[in-house]
């Protein structure tokens, strides 16, 4: 899978942008704040339907505009596909595939990309929502239909939580909430699909994660990955140390039992305390939780390994070839040994997009034909438009 050309209109700091891309490594160089990451973000958005930097779409639209446009021409072997996404500041986004209107959720069927950025350290060190977001974006790429399942779950969760808050304000007891069981049924039906898909993902990532970590860190620290589930009886959001990873049994049955067991607490707090929105992806090195025990270098290696393992999964499953691998300002955060190992790992991918503030941070093997980015403008080859510090 190759992105042959990327076009942007009113996306972030770009009024207009035309970026031709080639197979192999594409290096974008520019000082911080010039728009390198915006180009990487646009490519990744078509694949994941989300930004790695913000949770809403409004910041993606250029100031003073109502909508932004991302267009990409993809090569799938001998076939060419044109993707277009209209990102609206307000209201639903719109999409086209080769000129035909489709739902935006159809785009990940054609576009696979894996992006690694400094923000990914939060997957390892941040709160559970960062890890859930990482997993769910990968799930949508593996199984696009899950995008609508997750959207329906979020709407159901909001409705159910609104009912609980209203009941709390009115002092109602559980037996007075006759409509709560209806929302329970829908929450269980949708949430069980998400929980099961996440569990399968953790299982499938186990071996690729171990390989990627050994390749980047240069040693084997036995990384492990698994889900801490709120349907297990505790709450990973409130007390992650008290929750065992995984559990046996039918998900929907355990989900319903957990909801009934926590009914009183939910009414007291006006919150839905059971479901995939409360679960956590738990990571271990050498038998210890990565969060709180891993060194800075180990944390970086785990975060990067999660992305590389994601790329390996998509590569193995996609009939369209390799996912596009995007490394956004990553090399500056790594020591020389990890830079070299990472360059060796990514060299085998069909297309890699790399951004950097300083070209010399990038191993020489990935530096050919670097393109300079300056203040929302694509200026062409770095050799023709050198940065001051490299001139």
TrEMBL record:
UniProt keyword DNA-binding present: yes
SUPFAM superfamilies reported for this sequence: P-loop containing nucleoside triphosphate hydrolases
Cell compartments where the protein resides: Cytoplasm
Gene3D superfamilies in alphabetical order: P-loop containing nucleotide triphosphate hydrolases (3.40.50.300), RecF/RecN/SMC, N-terminal domain (1.20.1050.90)
One GO term describing the cellular component: cytoplasm
Every AAA+ ATPase domain range: 22-377
Binding residues for ATP: 30-37
Source organism, top-level taxon: Bacteria
Annotated GO biological process: DNA replication; DNA synthesis involved in DNA repair; double-strand break repair; SOS response
Record keywords: ATP-binding, Cytoplasm, DNA damage, DNA repair, DNA replication, DNA-binding, Nucleotide-binding, SOS response
GO molecular function: ATP binding; single-stranded DNA binding
Function: The RecF protein is involved in DNA metabolism; it is required for DNA replication and normal SOS inducibility. RecF binds preferentially to single-stranded, linear DNA. It also seems to bind ATP.
Similarity comment text for this entry: Belongs to the RecF family.
Name the record gives this protein: DNA replication and repair protein RecF
Originating organism: Microbacterium faecale
């Amino acid at each position: 899978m190759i992105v042959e050309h990327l076009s942007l209109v009113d996306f972030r700091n770009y009024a207009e942008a035309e970026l031709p891309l080639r197979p192999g490594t594409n290096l974008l160089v520019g000082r911080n704040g010039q728009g390198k990451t915006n180009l990487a973000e646009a490519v990744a958005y078509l694949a994941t339907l989300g930004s790695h930097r913000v949770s809403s779409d409004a910041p993606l639209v250029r100031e003073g505009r109502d909508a932004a446009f991302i267009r990409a021409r993809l090569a799938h072997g001998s076939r060419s596909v044109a993707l277009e996404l209209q990102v609206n500041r307000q209201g639903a986004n719109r999409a086209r595939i080769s000129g035909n209107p489709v739902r935006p959720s159809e785009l990940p069927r054609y576009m696979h990309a894996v992006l690694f950025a400094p923000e990914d350290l939060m997957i390892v060190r941040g709160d559970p929502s960062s890890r859930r977001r990482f997993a769910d974006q990968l799930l949508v790429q593996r199984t696009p239909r899950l995008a609508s399942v997750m959207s329906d779950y979020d709407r159901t969760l909001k409705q159910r939580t609104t009912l609980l808050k209203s009941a709390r304000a009115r002092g109602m007891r559980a037996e007075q909430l006759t409509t709560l069981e209806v929302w329970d049924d829908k929450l269980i039906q949708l949430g069980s699909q998400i929980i099961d898909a996440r569990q399968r993902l953790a299982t499938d990532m186990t071996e690729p994660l171990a390989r990627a970590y050994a390749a980047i860190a240069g040693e084997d620290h036995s990384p492990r990955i698994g889900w801490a589930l709120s349907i297990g009886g505790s709450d990973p959001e409130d007390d992650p140390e008290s929750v065992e990873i995984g559990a046996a049994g039918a998900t929907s049955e355990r989900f319903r039992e957990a909801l009934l067991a926590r009914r009183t607490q939910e009414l007291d707090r006006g919150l839905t305390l059971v479901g995939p929105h409360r679960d956590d992806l738990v990571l271990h090195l050498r038998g210890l939780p990565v969060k709180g025990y891993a060194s800075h270098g180990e944390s970086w290696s785990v975060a990067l390994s999660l992305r590389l393992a994601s790329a390996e999964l998509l590569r193995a499953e996609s009939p369209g070839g390799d996912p596009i691998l995007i490394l956004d300002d990553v090399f500056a955060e790594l020591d020389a040994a990890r830079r070299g190992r990472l360059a060796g790992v990514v060299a085998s991918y069909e297309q890699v997009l790399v951004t950097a503030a300083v070209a010399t941070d990038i191993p020489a093997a990935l530096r050919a034909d670097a393109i300079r980015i300056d203040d929302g403008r694509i200026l062409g080859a770095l050799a023709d438009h050198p940065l001051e510090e490299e001139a």
